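Table 4 source record.
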Amino acid sequence: MAAAAAANEDGSPEKTKQGGFKTMPFILANEICDRFATAGFNANLITYLTQELHLPLVEASNLLTNFNGTAAFTPVLGAILADSFAGRFWTIAGGGALYQLGMLGLVLSALAPALRPAPCGAGATVAPPPSCQRANGGQLAMLYMSLLLTALGSGGIRPCVVAFGADQFGLRGRRPGGEQKWSYFNLYFFSMGLAVLLALTVVVYIQENVGWGWGFGIPAIGMFVSVLSFVVGYPLYVKVKPEGSPFKRLLQVVVAAFKKRKEAVPEDAGILYHNKELDAPIAADGRLLHTDQLRFLDRAAVLATGDLADSGEPDLWRVATVHRVEELKSIVRMLPLWAASITLIAAASHNFTFAIQQARTMDRHLTPRFQIPPATMIIFTTLTMLVSLALYDRVFVPVARRYTGRRSGITYFQRMGAGFAVSVLGVLAGALVERKRRGVAAEHGLADSPGAVVPISVFWLVPQYALHGVSDALSTVGHMEFLYDQSPESMRSTAAALFWIAGSLGNYLGTVLVTVVQSATKGEWLQDNINKGRLDYYYWLVTFLMVLNLVYYIVCFHFYTLKTFEVDTANDAQRQQDGGEGQRGQQQAELSTSQVGASRNGGGTFSDGDKLTENS
């Protein structure tokens, strides 16, 4: 359990030897190498499977789909492990070790002749010719085991690194440097963008032109260094102690509420069951205060005969404290806003795939002898995201802080909403460019020539790629901030896992969207020959869906209630407004806080937010 930072006589926080930005090189190195390795071998793994292991294209594609689906859900396992008993540090260290073993397996399969089939010769391009000997069962088993280890390792790293890093800056600003917590999220995603950019250029080039041994070996070496450096930083870290499975506590609340489904919920929330000592290990920030939403769950906190033993110990399958009920309420309240990101990812999941097909038909020449590979256009999204993150943190936040008074400049709710709005413009730009590209193709009589180069520059696509980069810098970072800050304190690793699950579900939902469009239009919109198809219509449809999603997000935000929590202080009570609520949400939080806090022995009350005020 993380203790609050010590305070000087004047109330200012006392400097500590643990936590702060000095821990960032150790923490970010681990996740950077994870992203570097994943992007490095994922971006070109289809080529390795078809040209080195000689798998048919469809089989190789299905293998990658299954692997990506597994890797997207393993963060749930890592989050449960970290929040239940292992803790974030050991989960990250163990995940890094598993990832290292998986990468070594891939290196070994690329170097050892016995672990891959004999070369085909010069005939293989996209898929191996029938005469090629495909990988046998033992060779594929080595590949599957290596990929499984990397997926499990990534599941240990991804859900924990963000929360573990934010832990180093303290909770609610009580640790020195806590006001820099939101800058950490920008730094995190900026570092990830650099890793992806490096992987998409250097690693892919080495794989194509030097060899797969070095192509897999360089990320493996990077992972070894990152695990070593992360463990070396052990003495510097703030380590939050896990306090049992949060999922068990949530289930206990549900069971207790169901058993008391016929009980009346009292109007006075102060008579519901409270147990400060019981909740202390899972409430270092402070106990969550009662809210009026989802009142049917309050039945779990109604004391009845038989709920307490003679010793006073509660039967947690019959009664739950208000804090534990509010933990479940917090998760339930987060889900609608979380779901908005799923829809966003679903709507945009195939933009880059179709945009690459657009780029393939356009003039990609930089010089008479050199032309840009179609997939390289994605770099404009990554570069724009990196620039946007830097400008946001160093320019926009200081300016916005003068007007809003918030340390983070604007709230993460506003940041997410801005990202959703910019993503609409990105798809809209794609629709307009495709309409122009298709018109040029028809004007030059190329509608029936899918392999011909349409005389229009590929740089017409840059605006849509750039807008998606700006959207990522806003919505993606804001989404992670929201999940970390509004989740129950004991479930922050699980909340980070929700971030990755949103991406996974969004991609699966995107597949459903394309399938439905293909069926409804009888294949007329999305054709292999995009010069004859109506890809622009698809983009217009996606634009409409994203506008609906933006409206849905605004409605969900309007009804969202911030979590409020209480901390007993020796002297003055403090109230902290965190996150970025609207005026209505802020008033609700303050009303709930003042009513319940007054009945809790004058303890300080907190509502997640940025602005710090004192009770008079």
